[in-house]
TrEMBL record, chain A:
Pfam families xrefs: ADH_N, ADH_zinc_N
Domain Alcohol dehydrogenase-like C-terminal: from-to ranges: 196-264
Family note: Belongs to the zinc-containing alcohol dehydrogenase family.
EC number, UniProt record: 1.1.1.-
GO MF term (any one): oxidoreductase activity
Organism of origin: Sphaerisporangium rhizosphaerae
Alphabetical list of PROSITE patterns matching this protein: ADH_ZINC (PS00059)
InterPro entries listed in its UniProt record: ADH-like_C, ADH-like_N, ADH_Zn_CS, GroES-like_sf, NAD(P)-bd_dom_sf
Keyword flag Electron transport: no
Protein name: Zinc-dependent alcohol dehydrogenase
Keywords: Metal-binding, Oxidoreductase, Zinc
């Protein structure tokens, strides 16, 4: 079968690889009908996530048709149409049973590797490094889905792929980012990053009752898409974000700030950017935390900083003084997708959200190498790429 | 050793570490000046020697300042001192006049440092900060399993289940009277076989076993089961003691390969948890045998397997 393989920094290739087979009783094999490139795939593409190996199959946003089930899967049948959540979760550990699927205690066979970097290990993730399990991803014609009796959600035939594909990651991720803000009537929510996750966070914040949503980015075409959700927008290359947010909230600051950017943020001051970029290049810090710094400084006293952008390791100049003295709360996590599948599918069915609005490009799987380049450099107003493997 | 004197030994060791750092840095940066002070001739050879000694000093510094137990590293300095005194002795024999006097002064200083190092090292030794060579290897590991204590106990009590999560065991056959026959792969895949008996068995609480006479590797082990607080399942604590079959060198080598026995027991428990909570050992294409320390260094590529 064809699969998109990571071949080193800035290099992905279409390769012919073996078709997956059942390894565990609770596995299923899915024939992938749609898959997508995630902003967090760019962290792999740019070489910032450790423990990748040349040849690893990428992709953690995918859906398809079940073609084989292991003897331990009783809720799925061959022919079922499913969306697969990106964190792999067993359903039996304490974390899964308390709804924290992305920190499943059993789905990462390489937990020892992750423990060295993080203290304790998070769940395994499809196509996202060996530290997170060493699982092949879904940017391929077929994928093996472990714990298929827990993760995948069945989709009836009426809904097209494009409406439900993003249940696999970015829609629930944006939703969780907004949910972690504990939105109350009158709340102003600021969102850094007008990519698809930030755009979904904006939609979600309104659905959860936000008074006003402000989205911050530097690409006008992305800010335009965000504006269509009803959000106000700020271009940080033209406006001082802290001033503008202070002004918009008459001095209070946003009630909650969402970081939908993560470790590869950009900063409008060249000297500052060069400082963190140099440290990152020499591995003195792994992540460039401008957004985290700014979100903390911007947030109102006693407010919430909600972090859904992906971080990998360690950051410098973390404004812990502002964070501590002003009674802020930080909430974070890889999305516990399994928790949100049913309620969000309901909202898609009801027409509250049509996630397809984020899609800017639909290409064949074979064109993924070009699509990665385009997505990385934000060419052709690239917002979200959907890959068709067949 | 009392807390206070332990603290003193650590501080002394750290001070010696900083001294090494300063001296080493100076020797590397200005070998000519240092050489002259020591009464050496200003040749390429002497500069290179001073630099080499400086690099060695930095190694001492790294050992003393970077270690969690700096005190035990003082012996590296003592060895360095012996080397320096030998070098100086050689120089002393070949010098005369003012330069000889300088060598004498430096030698006296180094002898003083040696005394300080020896004092620190002996003091640490006497205090027992250095762990004595153990005749057996004691391994401990623990994990929390989200299953009722009775179930966890019962699964473990049937020793024939053990190979399902103890990757180095090929099989365990249980016989009457708590006797069992274990087959395992030892280092370098050498098969090892032994008989064991259960020496203690408290239902839902504790199982302890030990190998019988004639085992190649004498060993004993125990596992305790306790309710985790607040309905968090069962805390499982394992302790295994055995004669290290290939000695300390083998152990060091195994550790290098990520096959340290400690790690093995931890991995065994991880797999145990997987079996109890999910029904089997979790496999990925990168780690097809499931959790295994050595596999973390030598991962398969994350592609479907042939």
């Amino acid at each position: 079968m064809k699969a998109i393989c990571w071949m080193g920094r800035d290099k992905v290739e279409v390769q012919e690889v073996p078709e997956p087979r059942i390894l565990n009783a609770r596995d299923a094999v899915v024939r992938v009908t749609s898959t997508a490139i995630c902003g967090s795939d760019l962290h792999l593409y740019d070489g910032y996530i450790p423990t990748m190996k040349k040849g690893d199959v990428l992709g953690h946003e995918f859906m398809g048709e079940v073609v084989e089930v292991g003897p331990g899967v009783s809720n799925l049948r061959v022919g079922d149409r499913v969306v697969v959540p990106f964190p792999i979760a067993c359903g039996g550990c304490l974390s899964c049973q308390s709804g924290m699927y992305s920190v499943c205690e059993n789905s990462n066979p390489n937990a020892g590797l992750a423990e060295k970097l993080m203290g304790h290990a998070p769940a395994g993730i499809f196509g996202y490094s060996h530290m997170l399990g060493g699982y092949p991803g879904g940017q391929a014609q077929y994928a093996r889905v472990p714990f298929a009796d827990v993760g995948p959600i069945k989709i009836e035939n009426g809904l097209p792929d494009e409406k439900v594909l993003f249940l696999s990651d970015i829609l629930p991720t944006g939703w969780m980012g907004a949910e972690m803000c504990d939105i109350k009537p009158g709340d102003v929510i600021a969102i850094w990053g007008a990519g698809p996750v930030g755009q979904f966070a904006a939609v979600s914040a309104f659905l959860l009752g936000a008074e006003r949503v402000v989205v911050i980015d530097r690409f006008p075409y992305r800010l335009e898409i965000a504006a269509r959700t009803g959000a106000d927008t700020l271009n940080y290359e033209e406006t001082d974000v802290l001033d503008a947010l202070r002004d918009m909230t008459a001095g209070r600051g946003p009630d909650a700030c969402i970081d939908a950017v993560g470790m590869e943020a950009h900063y409008p001051v060249p000297a500052m950017h060069a400082y963190d970029r140099a440290k990152q290049a020499t591995r003195m810090e792994t992540d460039r935390p401008y957004v985290l710094r700014e979100a903390i400084m911007a947030c109102r006293n006693g407010g919430i900083v909600s972090v859904i952008g992906v971080y990998g390791g360690f950051v410098d100049k973390f404004p812990v003084g502002s964070f501590m003295n002003r009674s802020l709360t930080m909430r974070t996590g890889q999305c516990h997708v399994q928790r949100y599948l049913k309620p969000l599918l309901e909202r898609i069915r009801a027409g509250d959200i049509d996630p397809a609005f984020v899609i800017s490009h639909r290409v064949r799987l074979e064109d993924a190498p070009h699509a990665y380049e385009m997505f990385k450099h934000k060419e052709n107003e690239c917002n979200k790429v959907v890959l068709q493997p067949w | 050793m009392s807390g206070a004197s332990n603290h003193k030994a650590r501080r002394l060791a750290a001070a010696l570490g900083w001294a090494s750092l300063g001296l080493g840095a100076a020797q590397l940066a200005a070998p000519r000046v240092l050489g002259r002070l020591g009464g050496f001739e200003d040749s390429a050879v002497s500069r290179a020697t001073v630099r080499l000694v400086g690099m060695r000093e930095l190694l001492h510094a790294a050992a003393l300042l970077g270690s969690r137990r700096p005190a035990s590293m003082v012996w590296t300095r003592v060895a360095g001192d012996a080397m320096d005194l030998a070098l100086l002795g050689r120089a002393l024999a070949r010098r005369a006049g003012a330069r000889r006097r300088r060598v004498v002064v430096v030698s006296t200083a180094v002898a003083g440092m040696t005394a300080a190092d020896l004092y620190a090292a002996m003091r640490v030794e006497k205090g027992g900060t250095i762990t004595p060579v153990a005749p057996t290897t004691g391994l401990r590991a623990s994990i929390t399993v989200n299953r009722p204590r009775q179930e966890v106990y019962r699964f473990w009590r049937d020793f024939e289940n053990l190979p399902r999560f103890m990757i180095h065991l090929d099989s365990v056959e249980t016989g009457p009277g708590g006797h069992s026959r274990w087959r395992a792969r030892g280092p370098a895949r050498k098969p090892v076989e032994w008989e064991a008996e259960i020496v203690q068995d408290r239902e839902d609480e504790l199982i302890a076993w030990r190998s019988l006479e004639g085992a190649t590797v004498r060993n004993r082990g125990s596992v305790r089961f306790m309710d985790a607080p607040g309905g968090r399942g069962t805390e499982v604590r394992v302790r295994i003691d055995y004669d290290a079959p290939v000695g300390r060198l083998g152990l060091a080598f195994a550790r290098l390969l990520g096959e340290h026995p400690d790690q093995q027991v931890r991995d065994d428990l991880r797999r145990f948890k997987q079996v109890m909570e999910t029904g089997e050992v979790t496999r990925s294409e990168g780690s097809p045998e499931g959790t295994r320390a050595i596999r973390q260094l030598f991962q398969h590529v994350a592609q479907p397997m042939r």
